[in-house]
TrEMBL record:
Leader sequence residues: none
Protein name: Potassium channel family protein
Keyword annotations of the record: Ion channel, Ion transport, Membrane, Transmembrane, Transmembrane helix, Transport
Lineage start: Bacteria, Bacillati, Bacillota, Bacilli, Bacillales
InterPro entries reported for this sequence: K_chnl_dom, NAD(P)-bd_dom_sf, RCK_C_sf, RCK_N, Trk_Ktr_HKT_K-transport
Compartments it resides in: Cell membrane
Membrane topology: Multi-pass membrane protein
Length: 332
């Protein structure tokens, strides 16, 4: 190996490891030297190395003591140099740990894990969604990408924060997007609807360019941008304005005995919607008959998707047809 290659490899090693290797090398040299200076007191090289570490660390067990002038001179030199090096190594190690913690809080540390969820955009919806996710599965790894948040301490919120623009490849690489499980892009409600949707669509394009298979859930504020989001690569688009408008109308026109908002919220938290292709055995049966069969299997049949039209809570004599998609609820 040439000197140039050796220097290149040496400087590629982190400073903390280079310092540790230098200290070990110095202790080996000092331990070997004391073994040859006083072989009677230090019969093996290992005992000399042990003495070198104990002396440099200023522990001073006293189990091995040099008696000759050269041996004591070596001990003085080791105390002055080795002790300072070990103290510097400890302080350097502490500084590296503190710097890493600071960079982690500032979103400058790349995520190295896999099978994680990536959330784009920090807002109240994201915070609640992360809370629900971690409450259901505390082992879930979550990466948050945001360009407006300056810092996010892990001890305050158990997510890996990446500060940056999610439309840029560098930021997505920092989030290890190639090995992520799913990406959820929330709309920035502080921007105008069109600008927020444009950012969501650009982010979708960037994510899809880095991972062709990953599911992408995109929140769209304007209905006319839904098709653009799908063309960009979104697996699912959520039209939150439509949802909230329908929910507000339902709340506004509700009966006194009903609580539509709370009912819907608890339904979505505790139940999971599932679309199931109809079994040939129940084709031609009524909705009531199919509902009974589903209840026996701890599933609640709530409607039918036929020709891209939702038939929710149809009549009990509603006949099921081939190619119907059954909509049911399962407990999470």
């Amino acid at each position: 190996m040439s000197i140039k290659l050796f220097k290149q490899a040496y400087y590629n090693v982190p400073v903390i490891l280079r310092l540790l290797l230098f200290i070990i090398l110095l202790m080996v040299i000092a331990g070997t030297a004391i073994h040859y200076i006083e072989p009677d007191e230090f019969p093996t090289i290992f005992e000399g190395i042990w003495w070198a570490f104990v002396t440099a660390a200023t522990v001073g067990y006293g189990d091995y003591v040099p008696h000759s002038l050269p041996g004591r001179a070596l001990a003085l030199l080791l105390i002055l140099t080795g002790g300072g090096l070990i103290a510097f190594y400890i302080s350097r190690f502490s500084a590296v740990a503190i710097t890493h913690e600071h960079n982690l809080e500032k979103g400058r540390v790349a995520f190295k894990g896999g099978g994680h969820l990536v959330f784009v955009g920090w807002n109240e919806r994201t915070r609640q969604l992360i809370d629900i996710t971690l409450d259901k599965d505390p082992d879930t790894q979550v990466v948050l990408i945001d360009r407006t948040l300056n810092s996010l301490a892990y001890q305050h919120y158990p997510v890996h924060f990446i500060h940056g623009d999610a439309t840029e490849d560098y930021t997505l690489i920092q989030a290890n997007i190639k090995h992520a499980k799913c990406v959820i892009i929330t709309a920035d409600t502080t921007e105008k609807e069109r600008q927020a949707d444009n950012f969501t669509i650009l982010t979708t394009v960037a994510v899809r360019g880095n991972n062709e298979e990953i599911p992408i859930i995109a929140e769209i504020l304007s209905g006319i941008q839904v098709e653009n989001a799908i063309r960009a690569g979104a697996t699912t688009t959520l039209k939150t304005n439509d949802f909230m408008s329908a929910l507000l109308y339902h709340e506004m026109s509700r009966e006194k005995a009903a609580m539509p908002f709370e009912d819907t919220l608890n339904l979505l938290k505790s139940q999971q919607f599932r679309h199931i292709k109809i079994d040939p055995e129940i084709v031609g049966k009524t909705f009531r008959e199919a509902s009974h069969a589903f209840l026996m299997d701890d599933r609640l049949l709530v409607g039918v998707l036929r020709d891209k039209e939702w038939q929710l809570n149809p009549g009990h004599d509603y006949l099921l047809k081939e190619n119907d998609i059954l909509i049911c609820l399962l407990a999470r």
